[in-house]
Amino acid sequence: MSSVRVLVGTRKGAFVLTSDGKRKDWKVSGPHFPGWEVYHVKGSPLNPNRLYASQSSGWFGQLIQRSDDGGVTWAPVGNDFAYASVPGTHQWYDGTPHPWEFKRVWHLEPSLTDPETVFAGVEDAALFKSTDGGGAWHELKGLREHGSGAQWNPGAGGMCLHTILIDPTDADRMYIAISAAGTFRTVDGGKTWQPINTGLRSPQIPDEDAEVGHCVHRIALHPARPKVLFMQKHWDVMRSDDGGDSWHEVSGNLPTDFGFPIDVHAHEPETIYVVPIKSDGEHYPPEGKLRVYRSRTGGNEWEALTNGLPQQDCYVNVLRDAMAVDSMDECGIYFGTTGGQVYASPDGGDHWSAIVRDLPAVLSVEVQTLR
Amino acid sequence: MIRVVLPAPLCSLADVAREVTLEVVGPPTHRGVLDAVEAAYPMLRGTLRDQTTKQRRPFIRFYANERDLSHESPDTPLPQEVVDGKEPYLIIGAMSGG
Questions:
Q1: Which DSSP state fits A213?
Q2: Which residues of chain B are within 8 Å of residue A60 when distances are taken between CB atoms?
Q3: How far is A139 from chain B (nearest CA, A)?
Q4: Given Cys at both, which of A166, A193, A310, A363 links A143, Cβ 3.0 to 4.6 Å?
Q5: Which 3 state secondary structure label does DSSP give A341?
Q6: Residue A33 lies in a domain
Q7: pLDDT of A255-265, one tens digit each?
Q8: Where in chain B are the domains?
Q9: Residue A199, Cα to own-chain centre: how many angstroms?
Q10: In whole angstroms, what is the distance from residue B64 CA to residue B62 CA?
Q11: Range of the structural domain that residue A51 is part of
Q12: B59: nearest CA in chain A?
């Protein structure tokens, strides 16, 4: 019998939610690391009991926790994230140079081919790699040093490397996204990087179609078509059909094309999900109605999914790492809100319910399908 | 032996009581205490000071004898009462966050 395990990072700890394949009744475990910010928790696809958690605090800095029993017990592993060379400066909010400083780990991405290898996306933006299960970390400095770093600048949440996508057909090919720099690609396992932002337009920067400087909120791909990329940008939902060489807008009939997460159905590579948010200044759903939008055409044509979601007086946000899909026969969709709810749909978005309702603000949601 | 009081979240992390007793190798200084804490509890590395620069994290404070010693040089000798074990060396998470 299959089951699912939902890994939730919040402002004040981590929670592990489990259910059988029906995804109707849920057990809640937590808070793990109570009181600490947990930006992300993710499991290895090769060893589902191997979980990594990013635990941080303004007082005590960054820790990485590892579990080898599916989140029952945890132990701290390596937390020395030292830039591999003098990091220099990036742009500050006012356009002046600002020293690069490590602040926290936003995202942990376990390797698809080696259970001991895991990548970490950090603020200030850089990519780190561990090949010993999180014990020691070294920076893949070719990204930060590729040449445009001085032009990167922080979004409202900080200058974070928040998304890491690994091509399931080629472990050397990865995509990452940085707010606010844009999307970058490597084809040599992270030694060298190329900005891939052609087609993005951001009126918030002086040159709206610049090579870097775009506030990319999230990118996603389907494992069966790893060169088709989807992006939720600060404004605009975008799509690339050539591995990021070029992008075109697929916002279509969305009520607003601002938002944070974007994800792809587990079995339908052209079915994608976003959660429209009113604006960059008003981080809540339009009209107080929490609606997931689904496109079955890879963008442009969107339908609102509302069954079971609050349709009045709802003013939560859904952050960029807070949406995930399972790979059960009928794909489950999950997202968490800044109001502490985690919603799940066991039928691809047609019906929703809150599987837990009063957690601290949710920063991230991942799901494991256990067989 | 030096008595060191740790912030509650770090006691949970290190799985120790609020006050621990440590032997400081060499002259008893702030640096010596932090070296001893990190040697005894490696999981606390990076939580009190930067692992590379060894600078105190901004929201960490060091108190003893009702005095704030946070801004002293890391190599400043500790108060004699702390060295003698009569007073604890307090490591505090600064008041922050409302």
A1: -
A2: 7, 9-10, 47-48, 57, 60, 93
A3: 15
A4: A193
A5: coil
A6: no
A7: 999 999 999 99
A8: 2-93
A9: 22
A10: 7
A11: 40-360
A12: A59
Q: Which CATH class is domain B2-93?
A: alpha beta
User: Got the DSSP string for A259-299?
Assistant: EEEEEE-SS-TT-EEEEEES-SSS-S-GGG---EEEESSSS
Q: What tokens appear for A83 in the block? A: 């830039």
Is A184 in a helix, a strand, or coil?
A: strand
* One-letter identity of residue B54: K
Could you tell me the CA-to-CA distances from A341 to A37, A314, A321 in Å, in that order?
17, 12, 14
**Interface contact flag, B97 A58, Cβ < 8 Å:** yes
pLDDT tens digits for A258-317?
A: 999 999 999 999 999 999 999 999 999 999 999 999 999 999 999 999 999 999 999 999
Contact at CB, A80 and B10, closer than 8 angstroms: no
User: What are phi and psi for residue B80, nearest 5 degrees?
Assistant: -60, -35
Q: What is the mean pLDDT of residues A338-354?
A: 98
Q: B43 to chain A, minimum CA–CA distance in Å? A: 6
Position B98 scores a pLDDT of: 58
Q: Using omega within 30 degrees of 0 as the cis cutoff, is the peptide bond preceding A236 cis?
A: no
Residue B4 near residue B21 (C-beta atoms within 8 A) = yes
pTM more than 0.80: yes
Q: Which residues contact A233 (CB under 8 A, 6 or more apart)?
A: A200, A202, A214, A215, A216, A217
Is residue B51 within 8 A of residue B42, CB to CB? The reply is no
The CATH number for A116's domain is 2.130.10.10
Within 13 Å, how many C-alpha atoms sit on residue A120's CB side?
36
H or E segment and range at residue B35: helix B30-40
A58 CB neighbour count, 10 Å cutoff: 15
Neighbours of A237 (CB within 10 A): 26
Cβ–Cβ below 8 Å for A63 and B43: yes
Tell me if A11 is assigned to some domain: no
